[in-house]
Please model this.
Amino acid sequence: MSERHDAVEVIVAKRDGAELTDSQIDWVIDAYTRGEVADEQMSSLAMAILLNGMNRREIARWTDAMIASGERMDFSSLSRPTADKHSTGGVGDKITLPLAPLVAACGVAVPQLSGRGLGHTGGTLDKLEAIPGWRADLSNKEVFAQLEDVGAVICAAGDELAPADKKLYALRDVTGTVEAIPLIASSIMSKKIAEGTGALVLDVKVGTGAFMKDVDQARELAETMVALGTDAGVHTVALLTDMSTPLGRTAGNGLEVAESVEVLAGGGPADVVELTVALAQEMLAGAGVTDVDPAEVLASGRAMDTWKQMIRAQAGDPEADLPTARHTHDVPAPASGVLTRLDAMAVGMAAWRLGAGRARKEDPVQAGAGVVWHARPGDQVTEGQPLFTLHTDDEKRFERALASLEGGFDIGGGDDYSPTPLVIDRVSA
Ligand code: URA
Model:
């Protein structure tokens, strides 16, 4: 039982720039989860935190209090080590789909408890739900059994995993308080620590299509999360990766599943393969497996076998045709030359407006909607040839999607073009 406090006392302390005590933090998270602290009080506190920050001790305590609001999973009885990956969210970021079966095929179990997408970045569960029959909701017993049998599970995080964060994240989403590093770091890490993974690799996105628009902010977020994970006994590293350009060639649920299957079949876009292998190497190293080369396992087809088992174990049919949108619309290149910029935010917004994402968490998503881009920065394009193909079930959506692509790319002579590296930096304890 935490000492009793008063919501206004805690809000005023943070408003005036004071450090919150451990006891104030424990109380406010517990009282908010129980409904004793009202939404308007918590939103005021979240804004005070956004404006005045929290130090390392406060963030660690806040994270612990959110973990303590629910259950903590424990996979230490599994016959193999565990590792997970979390991405802070990007456009075309389907990496979890090939990555989880790849790491499992290399001998490390992957318990990936995910959420759904909100806004312009897609959610992993929405992507997998494009596969006929696939179900996201598993009991803890099913998660354990699948980790032992198949080695990889991607499923919905249950209501008992950090319930304080569930409530607080929904509140931040509608009160302009998502973009606070202490709140993002504690939100992500409370769920990942409660999930019980032994090793964790964070893919912290940087660029127009990411939360973090500049590399210094991204590094601060990465360092904060790595410190939280390490202190909790989870082997944690972070890669800072580029999200000024969308990943691969597709954004949209079914479209991204198809692209992931291409990667598992040994093909697919080079950037998706590069990031999948880089993250797999980090996950394996974090779990203590250093004698397996994930690039070789990907090329061998073993990751594809694990993918099929993973989809079947959750009632999906990996061989079934994926849903396609009722309407498509090609956008021709307006000039010939080199594509020198393709903006992740513009593409993400277009996919979202076509129906691939949701505006409110209860909205449905279209399985077939999204954007395919036929060139990536550095590629030659020809005037009049399709640069994008838009997919949607609802033709009326094309106009607004086209508007979001306006100004979202440049075609030039290519002299001023220099590729940005995909992996920008690595942060470890
Ligand atoms: N993802 C989360 O889970 N929480 C945040 O606060 C931001 C992104």
